[in-house]
Amino acid sequence: MTNILLFLNMEIIKAQASDVDNLLKLSWRTFYESFNHLNTPGNMEFYMRKAFTSDKLLSELLNPFSEFYLVKEGVDLIGYLKVNKCSAQSDIHDDHSLEIERIYIDQPYQGKGLGAKLLDFAKARAKELELEYVWLGVWEVNSDAIRFYKRHGFDIFSSHPFVFGDEVQTDLLMKCKIVNREP
Predict the structure, then answer these.
(1) What is the DSSP letter of 143?
(2) pTM of the model
(3) Position 97 in a domain
């Protein structure tokens, strides 16, 4: 699979360890934009300071079972995708699956089809790896995201707890079958 995919005037490229600082800034900004209105400030800060540090992101970038793909428009970093295989997965750990752990897009670029392109990109990556399905976790109160994933072939199959600061939230687990062979 090529490390670069062009989409309109945007490109999707595989992240390198040298991208950690830019990835850190984008992670903080996009996560905050996505979830601050649904959570307490204390829980947001606690989670972000734990999940989005240079050291943690660098270890994820260097993990051979995780892949990050950056979305750029010119020199601007506007989004990213993180996928996990095998032991890097946050749950399930099925060698026949690919987890989409993160899809984050800057607010000004949302609603332009980029999320769908990143889903298609992840599905193509799973197909290339000859995997059976792609799965992800989505917060049960995020009805817009749940509808989006359903429109793109994902079905709810389970749930798991997600500790967020001082509360335990529930993520719905959704998967999409990958067709690798013609009958």
Answers:
(1) H
(2) 0.91
(3) yes
> Taking the alpha carbons of 31, 36, 41, 42 in that order, is the dihedral positive or negative?
negative
Q: In the beta sheet, which residues pair with residue 76?
A: 73
Query: What token pair was written down for 82?
Result: 């993180």
**Token representation of residue 34:** 């996505």
Task: Give the CB-side neighbour count of residue 55, counting CA atoms within 13 A.
Answer: 2
Going across the sheet that includes 155-164, the strands are 4-7, 10-14, 66-73, 76-85, 97-105, 133-139, 167-177, 155-164
Decide: 135 and 92 in contact? Cβ < 8 Å. yes
Give me the amino acid identity at 17: A
- Write the pLDDT tens digit of every residue in 94-114: 999 999 999 999 999 988 889
Average pLDDT over residues 87-94: 93
Among the options 69, 80, 104, 149, which is catalytic? 149
How many structural domains are present in the chain? 1
Domain around 83: 4-131
pLDDT (mean) for 113-117? 92
Q: How much is the pLDDT for 6?
A: 47
Instruction: Compute the distance between CA of residue 71 and CA of residue 123 in angstroms, rounded to an integer.
Output: 16
Q: What is the pLDDT of residues 47-68, one digit of tens each?
A: 999 999 999 999 999 999 999 9
Report the CATH number that the domain containing residue 108 is assigned in CATH: 3.40.630.30
Residue 133 is a catalytic residue:
no
Residue 121 CA to residue 110 CA, distance in Å, equals: 17
